[in-house]
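Q: I'm writing a short explainer about EamA domain-containing protein for a general audience and would like to include a description of its predicted shape. Could you first generate the structure from this sequence?
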Amino acid sequence: MGTVCYIYSVDCVGVGRAAPVKNLTVILGVIFGVFIFKEFSWQNKLPLVLLGGATALVLLSTILLGKLVTVTGLARSSCPIHLIKPKLKKASQYSVVGFGFALSAALFYSLFGIP
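A: Of course. Here's the predicted structure. Afterward I'll give you a sentence or two in plain language.
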């Protein structure tokens, strides 16, 4: 399911914008590990500080990589936007759908690591 969502997101917003958003998989995996599976001890602060710094770097790289790609000519005819709402024509609407698919791909990829 994650791969299908990722392919749709690439069709809607291009690989330059879809890949950084999909790479938020790491952050979602950390959230699952810390809050659901209790993989960190709250007494030892150093791993949590390092985790926070790494999370900030991943978010920063996602934002920077997303801003490097121009907005014009994002969507292709294969973008499955008609599945959500027919007759959408604006590039911003394709962006919303594409980023939604990329976030869905990140969620599905992060769920894949749960035993």
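A: For your explainer, you could say: The CA atoms of residues 31 and 37 lie 9 Å apart.
Q: Perfect, that's easy to follow.
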